[in-house]
Amino acid sequence: MRTKLIIDTDPGVDDAFALTLAALSEDVDLLGVTTVFGNVGLEATTRNARRVLALCQRDDVPVAAGAARPLVHHQPREARTVHGSDGLSGRSGVLPEPVRELERSDAVTLLAELLTSAEEPVTIAPIGPLTNIAALLAAHPHLASKIDRLVIMGGGIARGNTTAAAEFNIWSDPEAAHRVLAGGEVPCVLVPLDLTHRCAVDASWLSALAASGPIGAALHSLIPDYLEHYRRALGFEGIVVHDAVAVAEAIRPGILRTESLPVRVECSFGPARGMTVVDVRRSAQRADTDGANGPFTDVAVDADLDGLREFLLERLIGRRV
Question: Is 135 within a domain?
Fold first, then answer.
């Protein structure tokens, strides 16, 4: 069975891995890619997405640029210290120039067009700030039924990465994340930091990728700044491929184990801004308080970690598993 998929992204090194994963998977119909501000500015994220698709020889996939800033408040800072000056460790120039022109329409328009023309529900994988998705649901509520599910990389149950409480994608536009997760229009799977960090890949995995061929070598060449960051964060030679974990679930539903839990997003200003408040209490306890009515989100809490790493590597080196 082929997955109808759209990716909304802000490349970013792990976004580049995730986009390549989808682009090379034969059981995926990659209908389109939309870009958003995030790890770096919109111009750079759009250029990076188009170059990754060119690397994968996927000039059949339309790309449209979306939101350049959050819905309400300005993004306080980008993630250049993690992803480098251009989002790809300063090495986006090693990727080929895009063949296909950027769509003249904006991201929300392309999303609406792709959903309208789809003959069956489509999975959307938002792996950056949720600004484009919030705008889509607000402007085209009738299209919610055309979305099978949103598989979102974002948030954390017990940790943040941008602040002690907040993960970067949610923190970059908490109001948009609240609109999407609390809206209830579309089933959501949230893939949080707690799990993606456990899925970190090590030096041997990265070496196998680099030795696999031109695409693997190109992806490996994008990681120096990212690797340096995670060398400090993890304490070993490896990286966290957050967004690729989410896209793996989008491609193969159930590769991650999820629990249906109430999730809210903290939108006030203060040390918890951007926090995903995930209610992990037993349902009986929630029923005695204010947590019984949701909104509920399928939160990814576990996986066969070695099996997932194998799935990612095999797909990225061009062998379907």
Answer: yes
What CATH number is attached to the domain comprising 41? 3.90.245.10
Range of the domain at 276: 3-316
Pair 210, 223: CB distance under 8 Å: no
Which amino acid, residue 114?
L
- pLDDT by residue (tens digit) across 66-114? 999 999 999 988 888 899 999 999 999 999 999 999 999 999 999 999 9
pLDDT of 251-301, one tens digit each?
A: 999 999 999 999 999 999 999 999 999 988 887 777 767 655 667 999 999
Q: Would you call 242 a catalytic residue per the annotation?
A: yes
CB 44 within 8 A of CB 80: no
Catalytic one of 83, 178, 229, 242: 242
* pTM of full prediction above 0.90: yes
Structure tokens at 42: 């919109």
Q: Is residue 321 in some structural domain?
A: no
